[in-house]
Amino acid sequence: MKKIVTSLMLCASLVTVQLPVSFQVEAAGLGADEKPKRKVYLPGPTVGKKIGKAFEAYSADDIDGALLILTDIEASKDYDKAFVNFFTGQMFAMKGDSIKAIEYLKAAVAPDILNEADQGNSLKLLGDLQMQEKAYADAVKNYYAWMDFTGKEDGDVWTKIANGYYAMKALDKVIVPADKAIAAYGDKHSTNPYVLKITSYYERKMFKEAVEVLETVVQIFPENKAFWVQLGQFYTLVEDYPKALQTLDLAYKQNFLKKESELKLLSSLYQQSDVPHTAALLLEKHINAGDIKRDDTNVTSLANAWHAAQHIDKAAKYYGELAKMTNDAKHYSKQGNLLKQDEQFKPAIVALNKAIELGAKDKGRIYMSIAESHFYLQDYKQAYKAFEQAAKDPKTRKYARVWLTHTKDTAQRKGKSI
Hints:
The chain is an all-alpha fold. It has 23 helices and no strands.
């Protein structure tokens, strides 16, 4: 465990034991005949000697030896008891025994008789240890006691209080100490209180308030990519899609978007904002790069984006890939119709026949597309056969019969047999 108390702190405490009160007052910058704000006590000679031996053991990194001495001290005076408890609590904290440390430190601060630095340090350490042991209410109480005792405004302590309230699920109580932490940090900004505010608002579904915090945060921490992504996502929660797109687009240009979900969200926002070409380019780039999985869902999105952008050949290409990936008739049908639209009649016929082979439900319309493709290839015999198949479907019968007549007449006019 990280050392919570330094030898310098303990040394200062022991020097306090040995020096006359007048010297301490002058060293603090007070006049010789002025009274200190808090009365300074000294351990008795017998207890002081044992404390000195314990400090020697501690200085030699023999914490167990120091504890053996300290726990054997039988102090009778209130201050002696308090100081021994203070020293013992710090030793247990350094050993990582938080439960014992809390026990001794609580006993140390209870009579409120320790010297000013020791009382203040013990209150703060108590709070830290109680947070570690998930005794959040007690920790918050001691952090407030530390501030009341020292008269200090500390950003870290306010953040710990906010975190304590969050841990207790007192989400509404998180905001005030988080704001006080922000004020206390001043120009030395910390992300922690902002994160606590955002989390508090988010978990209470106060998305507009969370957005306001994030709008501030991205200005203070412009290099923090997580905040840019969160702001874009939160704009979608309040249905401000233009700002969501602007924010995530800027984040993307700064190379902040790394996760598949983030890239897909940006693509979706482009689609939603009627910029399908950009959506398609983004998806294509990151699918090819492996940043987005090449699965049926994502390839469908890519094919749809190219289709919406009126890049029929590319849409047909990706529907073809999707069809091979899934062996699904509807994708072959989509591919075939797009190829036909792009006047790629031969590959269109192949794809459409594959859809029929796989049991496509809308056979009448598919046969119509097959027939029309043959017709435009001037293969009137195959076109006539396909129109006959289309005529069997009630949904396409009327239209197919018209084409049957037209195909027969065209073939006769051009001297071709059916």
